[in-house]
Each structure stands twice: as structure tokens, then as C-alpha cells.
Amino acid sequence: MITTSKSAKIIPHIVLIILTLVCLLPLLLLLMASLTDEQTLMLNGYSFFPEKFSADAYTYIFKTGKTVLRAYGITFFVTAVGTVCNVCMTVCLSYPLARPGLKGRNAIAFFVFFTMLFNGGLVPTYIMYSQFFHIRDTIFALLIPSFLMSPFNVILMRNYFKTNIPDAIIEAAKLDGASELRTLVNVVLPMSTPIIGTIGLMSGLAYWNDWTNGLYYLVKRTDLYSIQNVLTNMLNNIQFLKTATQLQGINIEMGTLPSVSIRMAIAVVAVIPVMIVYPFIQKSFVKGIVIGGVKG
Amino acid sequence: MSNSTSQNRQGKIKKKGSFTRNLPLYLLMIPGLLYLIINNYLPMFGLTFAFKKINYTVGVFESPWVGLDNFTYLFKTSDAFVIFRNTLCYNLAFIVLGTVLAIVVAIFLEQVRTKMLRVYQTSILIPYLLSITVVSYLAFAFLSSDNGFINNSILKLLGMDEISWYSSPKYWPFILTFIYLWKSFGYSSILYFATLIGIDDSYYEAAVIDGASTWQQIRHITLPCLKTTIITLVIMHIGRMFYSDFGLFYQVPMNNGLLFSVTNTIDTYVYRGLLQLNDVGRSSAAGFLQSILGFVLVMITNMITRKIDKESALF
């Protein structure tokens, strides 16, 4: 630890408390806005100390907000299925790559690594998925592109297996007659819970927060929108109507759009699962960042 | 169980070829490799679309080759300059400011040896967990001209006029840089912090005995120990200089045309051309340049790093 004079010891605390507030206050504003009475909101704007509270926005969402609840369900489904598939595929690809003496494993490892250096970008990816695989307007659009497996995680997990699972243990299991699959499931995986947890967390967060796949591939089937897509769509519609009214003087009934507090309430609803899970996984999450940050 | 055991042993004794013996391992890899082929390798070959005039009705493969037409078409407009300038300049600002901020925060975190450390770590990571969609709502809550917190509370309190944020490009370079730093500094501080706690306390103790000031300790112990981490993280970011966070530049300014001069990056340009303006030609040309230049940049930075400090190179 850097040694400082006694009076200077307080400086880190002051700076970090300010940064903590900067990180948390915007979320508090969002929460307060969602709990503010609509009239008060229109009159005073968003505020940390609303004059009049109201939970109307939330009752509205749960009573009539079919779109929101369905989108919520879809997001949960995609996150769960996607994360499980992601972890399975990552394990299955990285475990053989960590086994010494497997012919061609360096070539295959390079095949995986190369995708991190070079990629085709959005245009070819979009054309291929929509023209050849026809995943547009299906649930696969939310599951498959980009997030199903990350080459970075494969390298990460391979390194973990290499350094943390001694070959002797695998050989012993094989001598006892366990098949490759059995060795993997009963011996290697129980020893690898930290890395599996980390990759599962990162993948789950990526699926939960993703809105790009829905934006690219869901054109007509807006009923498949994830909660993030519902949110972006709502914000963009408002913006579109505003510019239209400003530019052309058209008067569009703003009442047809969800009111201000309801929009903020939906954003809160989208954040809540992450905030509920986060305190429990905070430690392994920080560990995961550190593991992932050092080069593979 | 005992049956399969004896079979397996026999298999060993027979000394089958290594490929047959390892067949289950090869089979395990198939789903992952197949996904990489579909998701990563096929699009690489699709980069050749940049030399075609894509026409969906006749099909992508039957579309005619047009040579460099898409590229000349792209560079005829001022867009090309704007998107490359924006992408590179924002990244440069993000690298410099992001690194400095993260190191400063990490040094402060390292000096906290109380239970508060956990509280600080937990809270500064929260912005990193939020989707860019939610971040755009937070930005809207602050910046919206009718109800926004800044216009309604802060500026009113200071007796200043309202600012129409979403139609004034001059503020956006600062807004976007602020949001980027806000969202990412927790993550990178934790990375630097992890290196810092590995530094042996005896270095500092020895330095203090020799009469080193706080600044001298940072300058001569902390920063040299962070060197490898700094170089690794910075070259990883430099390798992505031609890429930008699509959500930050598209969703946070709410795809607002008035702000394009300072918010249009290669990624938003490619997206708009492909899916909103039906201008696949220019879009694929820009995407092609992004992929190729990105690759070249990664190779060059890695080569230079290897020359300077082999330990820090990525490969």
C-alpha cells in the first residue's frame, strides 16, 4: 500500500464516495421518476424528491402491459437457454483443446483464436443469417447470432483446464475405466466450477442486455421482442414523433404512447433482475473480470 | 460398469490409432467449431460482397461484380471522412481518459483497507452491468428538454436558460465520452486494482524509509508495476480502434439526425446503410474497410509491442 500522511488517508474515501454516488444516483433518479405521479412529472420534470408519489405506472404494467410481460418472458427464456447452450458448447470445445497429445489441437486452437483477430462485420453476417439461414423473425434470431459462444471464453476455459486440472487425475479416471465423457462430467467439471460460473455469468448478462439481435433480425414479429427491444422501440417512437411534430407541425396524439412514468417503470423492471442477482454473485463477478482481463 | 471397464482396458491393449481413441474428444468439439464456421468464418468470405452490387431479388451470389464502385461511391460523400474521424477520435479519447481514470481509481481503491472496499467495488461496477438501452433512458431522464433533470432542476437553480440537448451537436462529444467513462471505469479499475494488490508492501516500506513522498512512491513503484497491465489493455483497445460501441452512438443519442455529425461512427453508418437506408453498397464498403484496417492494426500493434516488450504482446 502506498504510504501517505494520516490526513491524506481520508482523500481516497472522499473520491470513492463521490464516484459511488455518481454511479448510483442516475439509477435512483430513474426509480424516483417511475414512482412519480404523472401530473407532477409533467409539471416539475424528473426529480429525486417528487412532490407526489404514485405506483400507478407499475399497476398499469402488470394489469394491462401484455407487451411488457411477454417481452419479459422471452428475455428470461432466451437468457436461460442461451446461457446453458453457451456454457455447454464452450466446455465441449475447450476441454479437448486442453488435452495433451490430441492431434491437431494447436491448429484448432488457432482456428478459434483467429476469429478474435479478424471478422466479417455486420453486413456479411446479416446477409448470411437472413438470406441463407432464414432466422429473421424467429426466436433463433435472439439466440444464435454473436452470443452463442465466444472464442475468447473458449481460450479462457482451455487455459483454466490446462493449469488447474492435473493430467494425472484424468489419466487415473481413465484407468478406472471412465469414458472421456464421464471423465469430463464427473471429474473435470466439478473441479472447474469457478470458471464455469464466470462464463455463465458473462453470457447470461450479455443475453439479458442484448438488444442488437432483435433490432437487426426482428422485422415483423415484434411479439418476439425482448424487454430491451421494447425499451428501445418506445424511446425511438417518442423521438420520431417529436421530430415529426417539430419539423412539420403535425399534431400527433401523444396520449397514445405510454406515459412518461410508465416508460421509466419499464426500464426499472428491466434492471431489477440484474440488481437482485448482482449482490450474490458480486465476488465471482469481480473474479471473473480479473481472470478475463489477463491475456488468454 | 465392470463390463465397460474391461472393454476399455482391452481397447487400450489393442492400441488403436490415436484418432480412433480420441474420437469422442473430436466429436465433442463439433458443435463449437460448427458455430464458429457459421458465425465467424462464413461472414469473412462474405466480405467479398463489398465488391458486388447486392440485389436481393436475384440473390446475393448472382449479384454482379462491380469492382471498386462501392468504395468510390462511399468516398464521394463527406460521410466517409466523418465516420472514420469520429470512430478514431472517440476511441483515442476513450483510451487516454479511460486509462488515466481507471489507474487513479485503482490507486485509491488499493488504499482502502476497510470493509468499505467491498461497497465501493460493488457500486462502481453497477454501470457496467446495465444495458445500453437502460443507459439511454438514464441519459434521457437527465437531458430530455421537457422533463429532464438538468434543464428542470440544475439549470433552473442556476438561473440559466434551458438547453435543447438532443438538437445541439456541440455537447455530444462530451456527453458520449462521459457516458463511456461512467459505464466502463469500474471494470478497468478492478483490473488495475487486481495488479496493484499483488505489489509487495515491502517495496513501499523501503521507499518510505528512504524518504519517498506519496507521488514518488506512485511514480517509481506503482506505475512500473502496472506497466504490463497498462500495455496489454491499451493495445487491446488500440486493436479495436476502428470499432465503436454501436449502442452508445446509436441508442444514447436516440438515432437523432441532427446529431449525426458527431455521433455517426463506422458501426452506426454500416447499420443505417444496411437496414434503414437500403444502401448496402456503401455500407458493405465501409464494413470491409473496418474489418481489414482493424486486422492490420491488431497485427501492427502486436508486432511493435513484441519488439518493445515481449512479455506484453498478445501473441
TrEMBL record, chain A:
A Pfam family annotated for this UniProt entry: BPD_transp_1
Homology family: Belongs to the binding-protein-dependent transport system permease family.
Membrane-crossing residue ranges in chain numbering: 12-35, 71-95, 107-127, 139-156, 184-208, 260-281
Top-rank lineage group of the source organism: Bacteria
One GO location term (cellular component): plasma membrane
Database matches in SUPFAM superfamilies: MetI-like
Keyword set, alphabetical order: Cell membrane, Membrane, Transmembrane, Transmembrane helix, Transport
Official protein name in the record: Carbohydrate ABC transporter permease
Cited InterPro entries: MetI-like, MetI-like_sf
Annotated compartments: Cell membrane
Bilayer topology: Multi-pass membrane protein
BP GO terms, sorted: transmembrane transport
Segments forming domain ABC transmembrane type-1: 72-281
UniProtKB/TrEMBL annotation, chain B:
Pfam families: BPD_transp_1 (PF00528)
Coiled-coil region: none
Gene Ontology biological process: transmembrane transport
Subcellular location: Cell membrane
Its membrane topology: Multi-pass membrane protein
Cellular component GO terms held in the UniProt record: plasma membrane
Transmembrane segments: 23-42, 92-112, 124-143, 225-243, 285-305
UniProt cross-references to InterPro entries, sorted A to Z: MetI-like, MetI-like_sf, UgpAE/MalFG_permease
Recorded superkingdom: Bacteria
Entry annotated with the keyword Transmembrane: yes
Keywords of the record: Cell membrane, Membrane, Transmembrane, Transmembrane helix, Transport
Residues annotated as domain ABC transmembrane type-1: 84-301
Family listed: Belongs to the binding-protein-dependent transport system permease family.
PANTHER family with a match to the protein in the record: BLL4140 PROTEIN
Name of protein: ABC transporter permease subunit
Classification of source organism: Bacteria, Bacillati, Bacillota, Clostridia, Eubacteriales
